[in-house]
Amino acid sequence: MKAEKPPKGMAAKRPESEHDMRAKERVIATENEIIDDLNDPFFKQMQEYQAAAEEARRGGFPALRELMKLAEESDTGQARAVARLLAGLYNSHAYPFPLNHLRGLDLKLHTQCLAVIALDSIAPEKEIHEYFENGSRRFQIMFKKFGIEPV
Description:
The chain is mostly helical.
């Protein structure tokens, strides 16, 4: 009986050697270790942190723009509290921010402030003033406008 030839373009399948079988077993073992790693509590915590950071960016960037606009264009008590918060994020040692100042804000501003705090603490990509063109200068003007002095 004559051995069949494989179809054109396909190599003949050779029997698996013991070496090939051990190599496959190592690959399967490695894949199982990776899957176990995916279930590791630390890995899960990192995934949760990455999701929280993305959420902080999604809410934080628009809130930061709104708060900066308020601080630059208004002179109300709420604008002053927002300016002090931004100053605290700019340099917390020089411009400490008393958290009870958040109590004087309306709900929308309060929510925006918390979103910016989350952005700055969970997902900081830059210093707070660096999100704006000429940010350092703009912050200095804001500090002067509201009489915010370093301690």
